[in-house]
Queue: 4 jobs
Job 1
Amino acid sequence: MCPYRNSSGRKFTAVLLAELVAFLPAAAAAQSRKPPAPPQPRQVFETLQAQLQRPYLELFEDAAKLEYNAAQIAQMRKYLDEARDFCVREFRSRLSSYQKQRQQLQGDLKRRTASLEDPERRDMHCKIQNLRILESQAQMLAEHAVPVAYENKKAKLELIEKWPQELKRIRDEIASGAYHQRRFGDVKDIGIRELVAGQERDVKDGQEAVRQLKMTGLLPPELDNPVIKKYVNDLAQKIARHSDLRVPLNITLLNSREINAFALPGGFLFLQRGLLEAVEDEAQLAGVIAHEIAHVTGRHGNKLMKRATIASIIYQAAQVAAVILTGGAATLGAYYALQYGFYGLGLVLSLDLLGVSREFELEADQLGVQYAWNAGYDPSGFIRFFDRMATREGYVNGASWFRTHPPFYARMVQTKREMMFLPPKAGLIRDSEEFRRMKQELGKVTAQAEEEEKNKPSLLRPVQGCPAPDKLEYKPGEPIEKICPLPSY
Amino acid sequence: MPAALLLMLLTGLLTAEPQTNTISLYLSVEEGDRLIAGLTEKNFRLYEAGRPVAFRLEPPESPMLVTFLVEHSRSSWLYRNDIDAAVQAFLSAAPEGHWYSLVTFAHGTEVVKDFTRRIGELRAAYAELGAPLWQDIDTYDAVYDTLDKLELLPGRRVLIVMGSGFDTLSARTLSEVQKKMESVNVTAFAAGAGSSLRGMYEPYLGSAARLDLTQAEAFLNMLARKSGGQAWFPKFETAYRDIARAVFLTLQNQYRLVYQTSLPRDRKFHRLRVEAFQITDDQRKDFRVRVREGWRR
């Protein structure tokens, strides 16, 4: 029998629904503005928060000694999710507010354009430009920085929770010798073994892809410093000689601030200046190069990339770069966003855009660690670089690097597992004199590039010398806790 | 203080050009169709408002800023192929190492691509323009606005106009554009569209069409003449490749005379004259100098 048969019942239901419709969004809005309260008890929360700030490598060592129960971990995970959602909503709301303010100002400007005196017009132009800067920052934080920062924290939490058991399993595998049976476990045969047949066939596709890439004209200019080129080339060739690569390795250095590297099929490796700036030692750089070489040896690009689509992929990548680095501001905002630390609008060719899936990333992580180790480098370099990027500046300047690389936990564990399975080797290289010399040289190149970027001419700059916004949404290098502060006890 | 003086002072404060008395004068030296390179300071004489001026010969500023100003109007259908050919020719001939930007105009001016060192970005931006939306051809406004923007930038600036030279609905007048060109230190080149009208269909043009064409050519010629550049009006589409090469060759072979101007800031036009010559066996041989006509300060 239908419960709404009589009319008073229907009226009551209608009123109730109307109330609900009016009430629910208001309640949701109130909820969304409320920052999450830190979970109880205080001491547990604070010590756990401190653990999440520590490097992955330290957590791998200490996770077994940490005593947090499942409820505490679950509580913290919920808190991190809420904190992420709150921060994302907060920056989206600010973005919307800046957009409204700007549109209002632009409307005023249009209405009053004939009657405005120069100083007032200039003041309005400056305000509009500053609002564009803030819009760019808010969009960047909401869409990229905050999700990456919290993904990283959650990965560390997962590590604290699951690593002790995983470690036990790894030790059991080592004890039983089962680890030899893992995929690509024949590390003593690197260079002889056949990973995937037919690398040679990728060279032609790679050449075609490089040609198309250059034809688009969207590639940043090449970094033309003989010292840096020789150093990176020597390092990459050394790793290539100790890998499963069967094709010549071609290295191209791009003079762009973007922290990224990408490989095209057939051994065409592109490294951007920002990456060289971001690595702290030779082992970190070796780890990244080895990871990219692994994409080539695994023929990942070939498996998923269609030649016909390379130009559109690259163009799409450039569009993503524009959004990530300037918040999508296409004109004046772009210029000013570039001025305020987003500059280096290079190509953000993420592996995801090349169609590289999560499985291929994990495979490249495993093989990359093997190649770095086989070439005599400390295989922890890749984890340390990954960690540094995610924990510190990475989620701002390296947003493109991380944008498509989660889940972090699985990748970190995969890398650590492989490190544990590798036979011990003495004298693994972490740093070198050549690396320091390269860094010195890079300092000069960076200074020159920054100077040039600062003085870059523009037709889209009607007003010069506008004062900077009173308060920026973030400054490069700031931790997420400072960018989006949450209540503590 | 008289209002005129106040206005002059304000203008001086608000625009970049007249603030400085040091001027970089770009010029090319020709003998027939040949560009003359390798001249030294003693091969030149410079006169401002009829008076000789001391100068020094310096290497051209690098990188230079080159803006391609391209007509993109629905009314330009007759010239579309020419404009396309010209744009492609200039983008192919442009040497690396300089800053390039692409600006289009029809009903208003649009910066399609701001200055970049990557020519490919301009090519991609041009390819994405799509069909023109507007019937108008606001050439005067476009030239004026672009000069206005270039005026604010330091260094060596070059404007390359690709279009018919017609104007249908500009707010600015020819006289205003002319004055602007006289006051801004930008060298302008023009590749006039309409090769089929000047070539294949020339015998069939009526007097009104001929007059329009002459007027359009006169405008582009004025830009070149005032700024020390050059304008071309080919009769074949294929000629744009040679024009583009000629423009960049001219730019590569320009001389830069640096001097202190003593011209008053009176908003009047003052003529400029440069002589280039070589003395061999006590015989003076004069060359043709392509240089701006003068300054309005």
Job 2
Amino acid sequence: MNGPSIAWYLAVAAFLFGTGSLGVLLRRNPLIVLLSLEIMLNGANLALIAFARHLGDASGQIFALAVMAVAASEVVVGLGLIVALNRKRVPLDVDRLSSLRG
Amino acid sequence: MITGAWICLLSPLAAAGLITLAGERISRRTAGYVATISCFVAFGGALASFIGLLGRGGEERDVVSTAWTWLSGGSYRSGFEILVDPLSVMMMLIVSGVGGLIVAYSLGYMDGDDEERRYFAYMSLFVFSMLLLVQGGNLLLLLAGWGMVGLSSYLLIGHWHERPSAIAAAKKAFVMNAIGDATMALAFFLLIKEAGSLEFGILGGEYGSTTANLVALGLLGGAVAKSAQLPLQTWLPDAMEGPTPVSALIHAATMVTAGVYLIVRTHPIFEQAPAIADLAAGLGAGTLLLAGLIALVQVDIKRVIAYSTMSQIGYMFLGAGLGAYANGMFHLMTHAFFKALLFMAAGIVIHALAAEQDIRKMGGLRQLMPRTYQAFLVGSLALVGIFPFAGFFSKDSILAAAMDHGAYGYVLWVAGLAGTFLTGLYTFRLLFVVFWGEPSAFVREHFHAIKRDVVGVSMGATVGVLTVLSIIGGWIQFAPWWHPIETWLETVAEPLVSPEGWQEGVSIALSLVLGLGGIYIAWLAYGTRRVAVPRQLALQRMLERKFYFDELYDALFYRPTVWAAKKLYRWVEEPIISGTMRELGEETRDVGGLVARLQTGLLRTYALAIASSVAVLAIVFIAVK
């Protein structure tokens, strides 16, 4: 087994995930929120692939492929929504998009 | 013969179905002709059955025809079967014959009514129901016919459904009859429990005295409700809200006679329960006196005749209760003739006076409509029982039969004689007030003669036929000299009483004298107005309010029910049931309001909540492990 040990991979994955979640929690522009979400997903993907490789089991990689497919469709929907919001001249700020308040 | 009976039963039903299905595709008059023809076809069928029975020996006159097994469960089995025996054939002839004449009369009377087709469909249904009642081959079918008669009468009494009073009267008739239906059904349940069947044959079996009494009492309850006897009589006068031919049909051919038929048909059970049979006779006697008294003060031409019906049915109950079945049935037949005649003649009067029924506004119609006057006179004489008109022969033999029933019989006999006097008085009061004297202002203003067109022919010809029947119809039987009806019914219902010749004689003489006495007093007071009518305000008011029966039932049943319902609403429905529901709803909404605060609408709060929850879960997971 060559290359760095699995801990490094996991550390990078955790860093990506943490960055993404901070972005989701702190940023107010929906576009950036969406990008941060993608970063979180990629962090998770990295962990999946690293474990697959570590354990010699291909199912982790297949699972990562499935996550990518879901992420792609999610981005399509999310970006579509954001474009629609922009066209209606709704401010692109998640704190002001709060009409679903109970 | 049996085919005739089936035709008799089904042709009015076919007419009702045809008129209903054809709807506006046939003209109103065609609907009337269809109904009329179906009734006369039914009469033809009844006649064929009658002739068929005549050709048989006395013991073989009992034919049952089963179409299919109607109901079966366990060992219980009931067929859709009709019975042709002397009793049912006699009823078939009366129902379809007199009923047919009345439907034919309606052709003229209902001419121009907005809902003629519906009327004729219901009339046919009514005749069918009554035929089912009398032809039904077991008690269950009898009950089915019984209920359908109640339904048809409800539909017809409420024919003019835009009048609130007609709707109220229809409902009253239906509810009163339903009480009787219920007691009958209870009696049948008891019979099924005891004998396991509802064939007529089981009525002759041996029962314990309690069972026999209860069954007879249940049947009597049905009979008094349908025949408007004490204590369920209050619906009959109100039923006058229906069109006049409906009144004639209810009173003469169908419905009210059903009670008498029921007692005669189920007489074996009444013979096992003599106390109940005596009760039936007593109720009849009570009703005939009560109705006779009330009739004295009524001012509506149809209501006077309605009370006379109650009174005459009282005589039939008296006869049937004492075991003089043939006499009761004979009176039923003659009564059908002259009561239909009286109603139809009254209908002509009402028709000629633009639907006015108050006799205080009438007077002097003798000169204006002499033929109607003659018909009405014949009907009145027959009703009072004056020789040689129909009522004379039948009423007197019931009275004579009462003399052959011990001391109790003599009490009933006296009541019956008093009733004869009252009959003479109220009948001729009506006749004199309506037809004698000078035409009143109202009559001069509103009278219009009936023209000699289809309307006139339909009304005139049928009244003519009934006039003839009311004159000669009684001669069929003249006890004690000849009694073909008694012989005819002997195989079905053997009479329990056989009055002596002298008893017949005394009854005939006394009732004739008393009837004539009643007429004479009516003539003094209302014909010549030589004697002033005594003013007894308290008594008069009591009679006008019909002995306060309506008020009594109102106080006994209606008001307590309404009171209880209101209290239940106030103390149970409102606080407990509605309150619970209301509180549940409000609480749910309050809790919802609290939970809704979590829903901030801010995306980042949700994300934080998810992230922190996952973090907490992860920490817990690791710590537990």
Job 3
Amino acid sequence: MDPFFLEALVNGVLLGGVFALPVLGLNLVFGVVDVIWLCYAELVMVGMYAVWFLYTQAGWPLAAAFAACLPIVAALGVLLHVLVVRPLLHAPPINQVLATGGVLFVLQGAATLVFSTDFRSLGVEMPPMEVGEVFISGTKLAAFLAALAGAAALWAFLKFTYVGTAIRAIARDREIMPLMGVDPRRIYLITSAVGGTLAGFAACLLVVQLDVHPFVGLSFGPITFMICVMGGLGNMLGGFLAAFLMGLIVSVGGFWWNTEMSYVVAFVFFIVVIFLRPRGLFAR
Amino acid sequence: MSAAVEDARGMGGTAAATASAAATLELSGIRASYGDFQALFGVDLHVAPGEAVGVVGPNGAGKTTLLRVISGLLRPTAGTLRYGGQDLTAVPAHALPSLGIAHVPENRRLFPHLTVEENLKVGAYSRSARARFAERRDYVFTLFPRLRERRHQLAGTLSGGEQQMCAIGRALMSGPRILLLDEPSAGLAPIVVQQVFALVRRIREEGLTVLIVEQNVAQVLRVVDRAYVLETGRVAAEGSSAALAADPAIRRSYLGMH
């Protein structure tokens, strides 16, 4: 096989891993709270700035900057829930979308004010690895492995803890949760914190691959939403699989045509999928 | 008999001991509405520790509403609701399982995409219940051996009778002293209905206090000590099961006899 095509396949899988985290976060919050965080990619953007600032400006070790990024974005998720989502829990969905969409612009504007529109880079790069005839970026591979570890940790949390089991339960039947001794308000808060943590995790993996600027969310936000819808909104496993599918399409599309064209291919694929399976590829 | 079963029996005994020390549930003058629609018009009802009490009546009489008020899912607009002297109207619904009140909702409402054991785990969510999860799960499995066989199966794939066992088991996981059962026989085949009432009898023998809402009047009167007849949100009659079963009006309206 053409080693460049093989390389495109490998890169597609690696890219899928990075898409997977924000997809899981969005799906989790939507499945439990029933509100779409339209500003999800901007939470990731704030996390990227946090890492960039702590590492390059404050002189923290990279690991410490990563470690701080998770609770920072988790706290942001909690704030978003308490200040914006909770007051609108029983409002029409359009109001919820407008409100979280408004937060998107607020975060972009705030980032522009504080950091200007300059592109900021960490300047961290791991050496590439050569496997057979294929070159694999060390940074992308590390990010991919970390993303898998993050997804596995989320799975274990949802599968084995009391809170995680309640989170899976509440996504199906919120009304009777108090009969189980579960306070739904608390579950919403915890879910928002977990959703924020996943955004923070994604920020750590993206900041080593992309330069940060106030509008960096646009480079992965729309595709994140597309993947969520393709996998079936709220369907964690569907979203996870769709993330890899989309990673492959973008990467192989870029190999056959060019990078710009690859996103066109991805959108066309998305439109066809939604036309054929309106409830998502993996809807049961 | 295995030691595990003996232990579980022993635990049933402890449950009985707590139940006898347990509190009386008292409702007086309870009114409740859904928006403009008033469902309860001043209901008085009490359940003493160790008793099994039935609430019967036609569809739409307010039976389910009554249980929803007791378990805090719906706040009464007037009246008092006490359990062992404590005013429950000020207690949030999710705190009630820790107080010893468990509610098996209408239509069972299992989490169909979770396994039997995970359903039980959600039932043991409260802090005090988590510490005793394994012990109570084994107790539930002793009561309902079918659930042990199917513990890793998704609850949505259980038969109707097994789902009712799982719903009752889930409620038992919080270690309740009083169990509220809403139409446990609804939607089940006649043979399964018999099994469900056998389950209720079994739970009574374990020493639990039971408040059961049913449309199946003939069956429920055989299981409970006393019953209330609820009609359009008011208590139309009350008395011992024997007295109600002998009442000509009840026989005519609910037992299909003349």
Job 4
Amino acid sequence: MSAAAIPLSETQRPWNLPYRGKVAMAGLIIAEASIFTIFVVAYLFYMGKSLTGPTPREVLETPIFFTICLLSSSLTIHYAGKVLQRGERGAFLSLWTLTIVLGGLFLFGTGQEWHRLIYEHGLTISTNLFGTTYYSLVGLHAFHVTAGMIMLMIVAIFAFAGRMGTEHSRRVEVLSLYWHFVDAVWVVVFTVVYVLGR
Amino acid sequence: MSSNTITIPGIGVEGKPWLETLHEWVTTVDHKRLGILYIVYGLGFLVVGGVEALIIRIQLMHSHNDFVSPQVFNRMFTMHGTTMIFFMVMPVLFGFANYLVPLMIGARDMAFPRLNAFSFWLSAFGGLLLYFSFLGGSGLYGAGNAPDVGWWAYAPLGARAFSPGHSTDYWTLSLLVSGFGSIGTAINIIATVLCMRCPGMKLGRMPLLVWLYLVMGGMVLIAITPLSAAQIMLLVDRYLGGHFFDTQAGGSAVLWMHFFWIFGHPEVYVLVIPAFGFSSEIIPVFSRKPIFGYPVMVAATVGIGFLSLTVWAHHMFTVGMNSYANSFFAITTMAVGIPTGIKIFNWIGTMWGGRIQFKVPMLFCIGFLFQFLIAGLTGIIQASVPVDWQLSLSYFVVAHFHYVIVGGILFATFGAFYYWYPKITGRMLSERLGKWHFWLFVIGFHLTFDVMHIPGLLGMPRRIYTYEPGRGWDTLNLIVSIGAFIQAVAILVFVWNLIISYFKGAKAGSDPWDAWTLEWSTSSPPPAYNFATVPVVASARPLWDLKHPEDPDSQYE
Amino acid sequence: MQGVKNTIRTAVHLFAFLFCRMTTAAAVDPTGTNVFAPQSTPARSILHLSTFVLTITGLIFVVVFTLLVYSISKFRATSTNANSEPAQVYGSTQIELAWTIIPVLIVVVLFMATARVLHAMQDAPEPANALEVTVIGHQFWWEYRYPKLGVVTANELHIPVSDAAHPTPTFLQLLSADTDHSFWIPELAGKTDLVPNHPNRMWMDPERTGVFLGQCAQYCGTQHAKMLLRVSVDSPEDFADWVREQRQPAVADERVAAGRRVFETTSCINCHAINGTVANGRFGPDLTHLMSRTTIAAGAALNTPENLHLWIQNPDAIKHGSLMPAMQLSKSDLDELVEYLETLQ
């Protein structure tokens, strides 16, 4: 492949393309956003259409505390990424662990809410349209939080073993993108279910 | 396949035990091998789906025929549609993407080779899962058999009440699994195109095929997941007592239709856009001119990508949406014909003033142009909502979409096979057999699908296992069925060509067609690492620049 | 090359021939299901719109087809020019603009024509003298109720002919008891679906009397193919007679009391209704005036005593997969039952 016909400027120009991990995560986020959109549309479409059973107004309690937990975890994971870039492993470990704790609290809160809904109000996925769409939407989100938590915990294990360093910043950033996405979805779900839905 | 061995003159290479070769293929992460795996997998299902089509056509040869029972017939059309779309066209197109995209952008592999392999095996498993339904036990009324709810599985037909047993679950789960495989491949294609291009290859210098696969990948991300979402909802209904599509509980059957077609319409553009890509590579080379209007072709493709997300309910004109919704989807459907038409004009513009060589790849692309034109026009006819109130759900629609998928997509894909087979195997396909394949298929295709429009206009609905005599449908259906058998013979000729040319075909060399994109700069087949040195490019046709240093494209950029 | 041209010419001729045959078939065959033989305003409006759309798309086809044929014949590689490359043209902004703007204009025209007809048909107000029929789709039969006339029947719809001077259209409300169906009588109107929990509405004003055929057009299960439609368009007098007869309770003929007893003491009454007996089932067709119908099993068989025997004893022989169970009656019970059913005029 001779370079004879290629202008010299081409070979000298710096050639920088985006980091493929980020592009791939952006692609995954687009696909996941699409799937969540369909569940949100179903939720909105069926609002007020249940023929029987408890209504959102009767049984839902706005989970303000646990929402704050999840949204703050976006802050902590953001700063964790920053300090890892600077090489501060100890700070990284603390902030990362805090992120996991906050995420875990959110999941605990969801579980607690579901327990109350099922045992105190008799609302299950098969009770009525509200039950079906509520548990599906919130459940799909909780599933994605859980998947994220598993990834976070894997990184935590590496961090505790002292094996996370600056060289892993890009990958940690990719994972943070996923976590931010999960939080953004919660903002939408929260608005639709607890604000609009009542 | 000697692509992984470096031959040293004078020293022979020992034949490897077949088990080792098999192991290499099963564990490969090489984009070229995965591409071949996808393509061979798709070809296998072409034959299977074709047999299902022949069973359908034998049953419909005349009125009140009893070649198969209604239950078997209903499984045949469900499996034929599901198989051809998800396990024939998609794998073949992903196969070509895998093989060609890294080569065309001067990369050594896809961005994520292991994800690539994982996605292939997911999709492959999905197909096997679907076909396991034929064996998967029997329940009430043979309800454990293959799915029979149509490839759309409209609610509430897919609900437990109307589809007992597990046949619908095989449909749901197999598509869910292969859908995730498709998403993985789409992510890979996008990351590869955006992040792995060789130096100098700005986005505006990529081969059009790469642009088209980039758009197709984006559409897969947005459009496949609505189907996954709907299928998860269906599983919730069927197994957790949910009411998403339970009309008795206030649920909506129409909601399933919306979700399905929000997937279903962009899906057919996912299928056709790579076919556009094949034509955009083949037509210029065999016209000896660059593609006419490269930037417009890119813009039109992106436009089609966006517009195709707004037309879905033209599959639902008879469902009873209000007149404003119907009008909206009518205009968006007509609008998407504009960028599509522009592409046809640009292909003609490419041929115009050229020196056209009627080799087999070009024959298939010319067939594609004629047939896609007709298919697009019958689409515009149906976009006129009141007209669609007669034509929808009839054999007119069946004729229309087969015109697009077979007359358009399959023809362009055959062209791609003849064009790139030399690169993949190092041997040329037989021109003689190729011409037999082409003409037999043209005759069979037109006999079947031209005539098929007419029963639709005479009132014949789709998905019926038999029909009444005296409606004037008998002779027409017989002609349609004869054409199907002619197409089957053509496919056999094609498969024979693929096999015999592998052993006896003329050696191809690296650039048999005197083409201009990077894949032709390396050997046929390429070595595992694709290029000895990473290429640097200065235009969209780097090989043209090398062959014509007095008049390179880079001068005009 | 000549071969290709000849093939194309032959194909075009074949097309024209088939098209003409189809449209003339419409004139010859009065009870067909031909979209080109409208006998009612909706079908006629659709045909007019189709002609307009077909003309425009036909013109587009001719233009592009000609360009295609011209380019593949004029710009072939020949032995003289094959050794050099042609002028490498990359594009032309003016041409691109031209072939963008013209299609946009065509789309605008097509859309306006479409929207006009669409609104006229779909949003047509219901006149006071319209006949109202509720159609309920079942797997695999049609239920018809005339709410203002007190009539309940099945599978064969009777509606009055509509005089253009004083129109008496029929407005159908479309419901479903189970899955999706679609009501399609091509010569009277476009099709509209019957979707559970989603009532739809359509109308037609047939221009002449006679029997019009069609069938279910939305796949609804195993016997979708034999969910046939039969619409009898009657003169106003005949229609009034028919209504009057349908409103009567069932004929109570003492000579067939044995058969009636068989009916009333077997599980028939779980699914079927006969007005004037204890039978009040809604899952299957109303049998009160079974003998006023030409066919049984939604058109799958003619309404003869032999077919009735067969249908009751072994429905799968007529309509394999229908939801009518084989009744396992003794021969004498079956004979008596059919004798009874034969009296239900």
